[in-house]
Write a structure and sequence with these properties.
Layout: H1 3-31, E1 40-47, H2 51-64, E2 68-75, H3 77-85, E3 92-94, H4 98-106, E4 116-120, E5 123-128, E6 148-151, H5 157-168, E7 179-182, H6 185-193, E8 199-203, H7 204-208, E9 213-218, E10 228-233, H8 240-250, H9 253-261, E11 265-266
Parallel strand pairs: 1-2, 1-3, 6-7, 6-8
Antiparallel strand pairs: 3-10, 4-10, 4-11, 5-8, 5-9
Helix pairs in contact: 2-9, 3-4
Length: 268
Amino acid sequence: MNLKNTRIFNLIVTALAALSLLITWNLFQRVSPATAQQPTSLTVSAAISLSQALQELKTVYQQGNPKVIITYNFGASGAIAQQIQQGAPVDVFFSASTKPMDILQQSNLLINDTRRNLLTNRLVLITPNNGVFLSDFKQLTDARIQKIAIGEPKSVPVGQYAQEMLTTIGLWQQIQPKLVLGNNVRQVLTFVESSNADAGIVYTTDAKASPKVAVRATAAENWHSPIVYPLAVIRNSRNPAAAKEFVEFLAGDRAKIVFQKYGFGIAR
């Protein structure tokens, strides 16, 4: 092969190599997105009374953020706080009471500038639709009321508020033999829905969600501690930036409309 042909051959080889490299790079770009485009997973642990609203908001959020995968863990706020203290992998905590959040903050388990009080709620007395008609909490002493469902006061915020309220109006000691304790507010609601309890004390949002119960009375707000729902990003979050963005979304105007639809008030 003469010098001229050798040069032409080398040019062809170089061009083919460049073309191959370009094709390989394009294929890599298609099958291997940049790290910033990789799906981000968030675990959000929240009070079970928030479940319906948060499920709807998850759909809304993921429409604009399809790369963020949100997994919810619903339960009693006190129990969730204990899980976080024990190292459960949680990115965002949304509590039905300030006490569990205070405990985590005192243990330095929150990213402090992310904590905010977001929602409020009310405490109501419910009975099955076809149950005993009541018009006042003090009628819980009525002989026709055999079982009263409330949350476990030690770990369930709605139970703590119920105990405070019943103590304030002088009924706590009187109704002790009638109490049926639930592990969370939805279990309390289920006890009443199924007539396994003659009456129950739940949040107004839970009562609103069930066609099987009737609201008979609403507790005065000064009968118990303020019902406030705080949320925050957990310090050990695997994706703190994405967690902060989701918290901002939950505190935004679009989310507030959804929360209000389910009966929550907005904290001032």
